Amino acid sequence: MLTDFGYILLFIITGIVFCFVILFVGKLLRPSRPNEEKLSTYESGEAPEGNANVRFNIRFYVIALIFVLFEVELVFLFPWATVFGNKHLIEVTNGLWGWFALAEMLIFVGTLALGLAYAWVKGHLEWVRPKIQTQDFTSKVPANLYENINKKYEK
Question: pTM for this one?
Answer without folding.
Answer: 0.42
